[in-house]
Amino acid sequence: MHEMSLAEGIVQLLEEHAHTQQFRRVKQIWLQVGELAGVEPEALTFCLDVVLRGSLAEGAQVHLLREPGRGWCLACSQEVAIHARFDACPSCGRHQVQVTGGEELRVAELEVE
Ligand SMILES: [Zn+2]
Questions:
Q1: Pairing outcome for strands 70-73 and 97-101
Q2: Cα–ligand 1 centroid distance for 59 (angstroms)
């Protein structure tokens, strides 16, 4: 389950931020999860629950912000909504869509003390 290593990466990032920005506790975490990031939200929530235990963010509320997948269709020269990396363009049906958004997994915001 690669969500476990993602969760561990997030905790590591929080610890680095705590060091440079001098906070001791994380109370809430907002994570931006792109639709095309290849992350299963339920699995990520489960893994974070495990990994945050005993960390500076133990008991923190985790909010997942889903970011929709977007792409640029080269055939019809417009931005289209896609739900998987190799989706066809919803307007022309061709597979000439370059992903332009929704690939990220990142920490969007933190509430700390
Ligand atoms: Zn198209």
A1: antiparallel
A2: 45
